[in-house]
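Field: sequence (string)
Field: structure_tokens (string)

Example rows 1 and 2, in order.
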Amino acid sequence: MKKLLTLVLIALPLLTVAQSKTTKSLQEKYDDAFGLFFYNNTLNMLNQTDDEDFAELIKDIDKMKFLRIDRKANKIEPSEIKELIADYKDEDFEDLMTMRHEGMNVQVYIQEDDGVTTGLVFVMTDDESLSVLDVKGKVPMNQLANLISKVKSID
């Protein structure tokens, strides 16, 4: 039992790096935000129909944090969203793409280490909400819209 407790205490700090500092700060600021956190094994459990496309989508994702914040209730203005994006860029996230998907403005940022993707951040906005999906790991670029659709359907 002592060995298990020691192992958990050693591993705990490693588990807290599952999201960027900016995402963590955003969650702390809006503690009423709807939030979900997934590890790879949790994502695999969500695939109860053995959907091969979904399995391919999540196979290289280590961890994922999703936040949805009510823009109107929290009076989030466009300037605050610009500041949020600047904070991600300060963490070495770079612009990957901007698109409109199912009525949302979606901005995707990528973080790399020696040419290897280590993380993606999706900042999704519409008139009612600000959503952030912070992904540690890799997502196939041709699957980005599919991932956004899956996340958007989460309630």
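Row 2 begins here:
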Amino acid sequence: MLASESENRSFFTFRTYAEIKKQQPDNRIKAASKGDLPRKTGSFKQMNITIKDLLDAGVHFGHQLRRYNPRSKKFVFDNRHGISIIDLEKTYANLEKASAFLETTAASGKQVLFVGTKRQAQEVLREAAISCQMPFCVNRWLGGTLTNFATVKGSIDKYKKYLAWEADGTMDKLPNKEAAAIRRDMQRMSRNFEGLLEMEKTPAAMFVVDTRNEEIAVAEAIRLGIPVIGLVDTNSDPTILTHPIPGNDDSIKSIRIVVETLMDAIQAGVARREAAPSQVRNSVLSRGETVKEEQLPVTARSIQVPGAANADIPETYSSDNEK
């Protein structure tokens, strides 16, 4: 970002945005500033942020008008001092839809790929992906990572093999020249496949920071029909995304508040999936229904011993009784 553009963006404050909004009165801004914005009810986890939080993080700062993309017009609230102001009501609504979609995806046991190679987004995405155990790419996007995943998967398996050699001492048994060449390859592979080691197949969804910078990754996902959620600024095209989230994609604070909100949704989906089996069993028992014998573990079954009909056999039998 240019220095002059950064200075222009920092000119705006919450008071400035509120004064602009007064020209078109809307009770939602007043409610959101107090944290009383109505939210959708249902089984999805409610977001723990308000529009005021988005304002404080600077999500409403757009790019200069000379970088303006006309296709982002519906997400632009106003243009002041040569800077586009993003409508945070639409940002909040789209962020809520994206959170619900990612929660459903995670609840079904599918993976979400985090992509963001720009400096401001690298550490934020790495922390979020690791915390919710999802794959990520923050160093460099290799062309064909999705469309040619079979070849990329072979390289990932090769890197895993080298890591195993390093762990069990096989690498030390190789000639020094061969071991040095392998370690050089491992350094390169570590940059390229750092967050892709656990991705066994193409992901069910992708989250991207700055779709303009990650246009190759977005194009591959669209070609394969993978839903794309993206944080898009006013210089990007939001129409190509499944769930565009209009907002400032050049600020660490702005990126962090959006990423952490989506991370909470994914973690809520994973928790729903893990809690589902126990909830089903508890609901069946609460209705007084009997559970089939084959659904119970061996230690909970009554085992019939041939030729010992009159013997005293405990109702709960385990292999420990034989000792």
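free_text_note (row 2): The chain has ten helices and eight strands.
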